[in-house]
Design brief:
The chain contains twelve helices and 23 strands. It is of the alpha/beta class. It has two domains: 5-22 and 236-435, Enolpyruvate transferase domain (UDP-n-acetylglucosamine1-carboxyvinyl-transferase, Chain, Alpha-beta prism), CATH 3.65.10.10; 24-226, UDP-n-acetylglucosamine1-carboxyvinyl-transferase, Chain (Alpha-beta prism). Helix 1 packs parallel to helix 2 (50-61) and helix 1 (24-36) packs parallel to helix 3. It starts with a strand and ends in a 6-residue tail after the last helix.
Length: 441
């Protein structure tokens, strides 16, 4: 049975303070690094979501000792290449693109085969972007048309590589970094800038990694096959989860919101920079460094008239998970907004470029879509009074949550199907909306 939520009323003005779910990217990366460390590691405030739980279950299947209680999650690692499991062990990554790609690097030196599977959505996604470099390291892979299920067999004879990562994918880059971590010698990666949590965690652990920032690329060198000790880490709030409430506040009347303790890593805050260029009132306060990551409170106020944007290409990788919300904001802004070189949106949990185009047309916004771009003709006076259904979007959690924000600010009567998709990243999403006064049933 499809889980359906109904939203029939716009949200009233609010002035509140909230926290949001913990950072998903950091939660998964902590788990994979803790599993390869020597000794016990603890994560406080680890995200409790389907994607993170899939990572913990995967590690248990590899023989890693994982325990959870209300205060923390503890992983007892035995060092690099210490996993104990049967040949052809099956790991179900469910909907997690991060887990399915990063764990391939973690398994680089494990000579027993692992078969990675996923749900219907993940099984449609292209894995050639990691299969090619994995093979260069000496890792054997077997798949049909570069999709899951993927059989991966590591080797004791890993060889360091030099590789150009030109997509701007943090998942691909992190997969290579985890491979390099297990590989003797120096691996060199020339990468289009993308979120850099893995690099920052490597630095926090004092692993031998060097990063040189050039105009269009990051040059990353890592000397592999170095053991490291267990570590403790407190996970801050997720900017991607915060983004839904940032846009909800901006598009609501007479509203103000303080979102506490959020990871504001520059590689993730593209949405804030874009919205500021659109005249949004957003401030970062109480900013501080914590274990290599910047953390701050985000203060958002509505009331300012929003304007269109011609989005610079270099913003794309910093905003990849938040574009649906930006498109919604553009729909309520004055003027025509332009987005180019955004074809990567077609390779997420759903084809988000197609979804956005169809969604905006449904609510009466003129758009022009190409394979790699979107033009949005904004309407600041947009209000809805019809019946709207959101379904058949491949259970994409971000599409679901963006639709909820739209319903709460635009009006109309909405039925949003597959609402349990939020469990992928933000199980408390609906309860947080209700805490602001949203009427959802």
């Amino acid at each position: 049975m499809l889980k359906i939520i109904n939203i029939n009323k716009t949200i009233k003005s609010f002035k509140k303070k909230i926290s949001v779910s913990s950072d998903k990217s950091l939660s998964i990366r902590w788990a994979l690094l803790a599993a390869q460390a020597v000794g016990k590691s603890r994560a406080y405030n680890l995200l409790n979501s389907e994607d993170v739980n899939s990572a913990l279950i995967a590690l248990k299947k590899l023989g890693v000792e994982v325990t959870k209680n209300k205060k923390y999650c503890e992983i007892n690692g035995k060092g690099l290449n210490s996993f104990l499991y049967n040949n052809n062990t099956v790991i179900n990554c469910q909907n997690s693109g991060t887990l399915s790609r990063l764990i391939c690097g973690v398994l680089a030196k494990s000579t027993k085969s692992v078969i990675l599977k996923g749900d219907q959505s993940l099984s449609k996604r292209d894995f050639s972007r990691i299969i090619r470099p994995l093979n260069l390291f000496g890792i054997k892979t077997k798949s049909k048309k570069n999709k899951l299920p993927l059989k991966i067999t590591g080797t004791n004879f890993l060889r360091p590589i030099e590789y150009d990562e030109l997509i701007g994918s943090a998942q691909v880059k992190s997969c290579l970094l985890f491979c390099a971590l297990n590989t003797p010698g120096i691996t060199k990666i020339r990468a289009v800038p993308s979120r850099d949590h893995t690099e920052r965690l490597f630095k926090f652990l004092k692993l031998p990694i060097k990063i040189k920032r050039e105009k269009k690329f990051d040059i990353i060198k890592i000397k592999g096959d170095n053991q490291y000790n267990g570590f403790n880490y407190k996970i801050p709030g997720d900017i991607s989860s915060s983004a839904f409430f940032i846009v909800l506040t901006l598009l609501s009347k007479n509203s103000k919101l303080l979102i506490k303790n959020i990871n504001v890593n520059k590689s993730r805050t593209g949405i804030i920079d874009i919205l500021k260029k659109m005249n949004a009132d957003i401030k970062l306060i109480n900013k501080k460094m914590y274990n290599g990551e910047y953390v701050a409170d985000i203060l958002v106020k509505s009331g300012k008239s929003l304007k269109s944007i011609n989005c610079a290409r270099e913003m794309n990788s910093r905003t990849i998970d938040e574009f649906l919300l930006i498109f919604l904001t553009c729909a309520k802004s004055k003027g025509i907004s332009y987005f180019n070189h955004i074809g990567e949106l077609r390779h997420k949990e759903s084809d988000r470029l197609k979804f956005a185009s169809n969604f905006l047309k449904m609510i009466g916004i003129k758009v022009k879509e190409t394979s790699n771009s979107l033009k949005i003709y904004g309407n600041p006076k947009l209000k809805l009074n019809g019946n709207y259904k959101i379904k058949n979007y491949n259970k994409d959690h971000r599409a679901c949550m963006m639709s909820c924000v739209a319903a709460l600010v635009l009006g109309g009567r909405w039925k949003i199907y597959d609402s349990d998709s939020i469990n992928t990243s933000f199980p408390q999403f609906f309860s947080k909306l209700k805490s602001l006064g949203a009427k959802i049933n």
